[in-house]
Amino acid sequence: MFRRADLRLAAAGAVLLAATSLMPGWLLVLAATALAKGIVALGLLLLMRAGLVPFGQAMFYCLGGYAAGLGSLWLGIRDVLLLLLLAGLAAGAAGWVVGLLIRRYRGIFFAMLSMAFSMILYGVLLKSQDLGSSDGFSVPRPTLLGLTMTGTPALRILFAVTVLLTVLLAWGVSAYLRTAMGQIGPAIRQNEVRVSYLGYEPDRLIHREYAASGLLAGVAGALVAMLVGQVDPGMGFWMTSGEFVFIAILAGTGGIWGSLGAAFILEAVHAIAFDVAPTYWRLILGGTLLVMILRFPAGLSSLAPRRVRRA
């Protein structure tokens, strides 16, 4: 049975889909990018509830983008759904392998080790001439169920796919957080030893959630790659990971709405600041978000009604 929060999420998705035909191309790209980054923030939510802050999610975001691009160019896969599946599996598998090592660490060691893996990927891609080096390569427009997409209609279809996928993944994360395993995360943050005495293995749970967060980031990276038609090593740079962490901190750990809302706010402020002051947009962006964090130290999730937070 769907909860009210799930129905509200479906209603928000329906509103976005209804507005698709009215939105110009630049707004479609902006909104779809915000939704994709919100998907990454959903993965970070799983880890942050356990007290872990990874600074290497850009690695999976980049892997997803490159998997979509290479799947189209090298494997001949053109369908958007198959490319998203390929990107999610590639990033999820990478998260599972890296998680075998990283799941034993906590605190700053977890954060720095995850960033180290991301920077290794960035360095490899930067030196790879076959993959375009620092310039990356272009990603051709995908198809949808055999339908060729070009121009603005392609952006509208990709935006609709992004909205539907975001709603489905948000439902999945929300359902997981209501399970027994999903509720162990905050217990691990409070007292990991007691969780072990209860019969649960914190390392195994963190491993699964780390792999799941990698899968979500990979799907998001593939969406952005197909939207902008380009991938480059910058997708795996540490500043990209920092942006995701910033979204997660701004969102808080109260639920999925904060993650999606924070991603939209960050993209909107970024676009407006760059348009108003191209030279000082970073100063405007940083100052605005600093004020928001000081105003809402518990994140945007703290704005939810009290009865929702209790639930």
UniProtKB/TrEMBL annotation:
Judging by the UniProt lineage, the source's domain of life is Bacteria
InterPro entries listed in its UniProt record: ABC_transp_permease (IPR001851), LivM-like (IPR043428)
- Give a yes or no for keyword Membrane in this entry: yes
Got a GO cellular component term for this one? plasma membrane
Keyword annotations: Cell membrane, Membrane, Transmembrane, Transmembrane helix
Compartment(s) of residence: Cell membrane
Q: What are this entry's molecular-function GO terms?
A: branched-chain amino acid transmembrane transporter activity
Q: Write down the membrane topology.
A: Multi-pass membrane protein
Q: Which Pfam families match?
A: BPD_transp_2 (PF02653)
Q: Where is it chiefly localized?
A: membrane
The record lists the membrane-crossing segments as 46-68, 80-102, 108-126, 157-177, 210-232, 244-274, 280-300
Question: Which PANTHER family does UniProt cross-reference here?
Answer: HIGH-AFFINITY BRANCHED-CHAIN AMINO ACID TRANSPORT PROTEIN BRAE, HIGH-AFFINITY BRANCHED-CHAIN AMINO ACID TRANSPORT SYSTEM PERMEASE
Q: What is this protein called?
A: Branched-chain amino acid transport system permease protein
Source organism of the structure = Muricoccus pecuniae
